[in-house]
Hints:
- The chain is of the alpha/beta class.
- The protein has eleven helices and 17 strands.
- Helix 6 (142-152) crosses helix 7 (175-198).
- It starts with 5 loop residues before the first strand and ends in an 8-residue tail after the last strand.
- The relative contact order is 0.15.
Amino acid sequence: MLDTPTLLLDLNQLEKNIQDIIEFSQQHNVQYRPHIKTHKCAEIAKRQMKAGAIGITTATVGEAEVMADAGIDNILIAYPIFTEEKLSRVLALLDKVSVIVTVDSIEQANKLHEFFTKNERTLTVWIKVNTGLNRCGVEPEEQVLQLAEHIQTLSALELTGIFTHAGHSYAATTEEKVREIAQYEAEAIVASANLCEENGIEIPHRSVGSTPTYKVAGAVDGITEVRPGNAVFYDMIQVGLGAATIEQCALTVCASVGSIKAGRIIIDAGAKTLNLDRGAHGNENVQGHGYIKEHPELIIERLSEEHGIIETRYPELVALGELLTIIPNHACTVANLFDAYTVIKDGKVVDHWKVDARGRVD
């Protein structure tokens, strides 16, 4: 009997999801560099590498440190770090693994050059390009070229790639809009790389790919790499976007019914379990706070910290103590709330995997 709430990971579906990405990358001759901020788990990262990934992407230096300690030896840190404290940690990582650092301004590039010159090391960097999310990144083409030309003057930096993240695809309301965003994502990267190469700066790596867009953007000629993160699990946001089906969702939360009252059912999965996230970039395609597989007609309307509230005229649909399996809206943020995955195969618990980089937002 499972204690609740607990984080369940379907091993069969996880492996199918990884293999699906590998087959896509092989078909389109692109490399696979998964973003591990989704799972934050060394065991899953190792399985992705064993399947054919050439490295990983992390959101933070802390995540990179955890994965390096686990033996992952090729890491892109997809955030433009700047401070002495973080650069010192990257310097230590370089003694163990290959690290690529994001650059998105001349000022930051100068800081990296100064630090790594002082420490007599060379740092590999990629330029982050803004293709519509309007977060980090320089604008395509001319601004990419301008920054690339500046980096060429800095002896401690070696520019080998450019990349982008079309996270705004999560706010798309139709599959056609997702495809449009994906097409522009890839074309902007290819055009920027081509412009650099026309000016004598080689850009061997051209990386794209949020989960909703990677199968379109990754098929564009000139792209060399995809970096989907959420596709290892999928969730209700991806289902709402048409990027996945209910059956493809490998991650669920098992909760139990703790109270049944007139007009409502209470479960032991609240905001500290399911998170309040309905989509970081404005997605409106999800309903409630997760999809209950046993009772799709029931909607988790409200969350407090430890309570999930299902408002219904038919509370007799469930029994006190009944276990409910919930597909979260956003798997990445939910995984970060747990210490471990309870791994199941064919309905039986087969293992427990630590969420190694949980809380490593540093």
